[in-house]
Each structure stands twice: as structure tokens, then as C-alpha cells.
Amino acid sequence: MSYDIFVCRFVDGEPAVLDKEVAHEALDPYVTARDENFLQIKAGSDGGSADIHFSSDTNITINHLGGDEIMNVIVELVRRTESSLILPGGTVVLSRDEDRECLPESIRDGWEVAVASTGEEITRAIRES
């Protein structure tokens, strides 16, 4: 897929710092290339890959993603960092429904909010956004 998706963490409706150490723990088994604020990852036999950009303390940008297995890696990243996945088209994906209360009110009230615990569910949310 050729668009950007964003991993963002919110606490009490405000952006919060992502634990980069936890993010690296989730992603490191899949790293094929690394730079200061960049990782390229691959997962599975389907050739799935993604570019991971540590954009800021509160944001990870993911692009050039594709493949079923890579979506499982992304859902694990979201779960372990207690974050949300922001999709194009005004959809936010959470790994747990209880994280909905952490979102800013404008997102809770104005965006589609989906809960996904598998890569397949993230793929479905992307297609529907």
C-alpha cells in the first residue's frame, strides 16, 4: 500500500510519548534495514514488508506496507505500545476497546473507531476506510 498510516499514543485525550524501547522490541525480530529513525521490516513468506519511521516522540509513520503477515506485526506494535493506528479517511484502530477513552474527544466523536486484534482485522479496517 502506498499511503501512510500512523501509530499514535493518547492518554486522557492528549498525545503521549511512545515507548520506543517497547516499539523496537516488537519490531526488531523483523528488521532488514536500520537507520537512526528508520526501520525496514519483513515478515512472513508472502514477502510482506513495511517502512517504519520514528517521526516524533508521539508518532510512528508506517508506509510502503503490504502482505498479510506484516499486518500482524503492526497490530502487535499497536498492542505493545498501547497506541492507536490512524488510517487515511478518518478511521482509528485500537487493539482494545477500553483504549477508546484515551482518544481525544474529537476523534471519539467524529471518526470511525474500530477494534482489531489481528492483522486481518486491520486489513479489513483499511479497506473500509
CATH architecture: 2-Layer Sandwich
Separation, N- and C-terminal Cα atoms = 13 Å
Secondary structure: number of strands: 9
Amount of helix: 25-40%
Description of the molecule:
With 129 residues, this protein is of the alpha+beta class. The chain has one domain (5-128): TATA-Binding Protein. The protein is 29% helix and 39% strand. The chain has four helices and nine strands. The protein has helices spanning 20-27, 68-80, 105-110, 119-128, and strands at residues 5-11, 14-16, 31-35, 38-43, 48-56, 59-66, 84-87, 91-94, 112-115. Strands 1, 2, 3, 4, 5, 6, 7, 8 and 9 form a nine-stranded mixed beta sheet that branches. The radius of gyration is 14 Å and the shape is globular. The mean pLDDT is 93.
Write the layout of secondary structure elements.
Layout: E1 5-11, E2 14-16, H1 20-27, E3 31-35, E4 38-43, E5 48-56, E6 59-66, H2 68-80, E7 84-87, E8 91-94, H3 105-110, E9 112-115, H4 119-128
Parallel strand pairs: 8-9
Antiparallel strand pairs: 1-2, 1-6, 1-7, 3-4, 4-5, 5-6, 7-8
Helix pairs in contact: 1-2, 2-4
Write out key terms for the chains shown:
single chain; 129 residues; alpha+beta; TATA-Binding Protein; 9-stranded mixed β-sheet; 4 helices; 9 strands; 29% helix; 39% strand
Quick rundown:
With 129 residues, the protein is of the alpha+beta class.
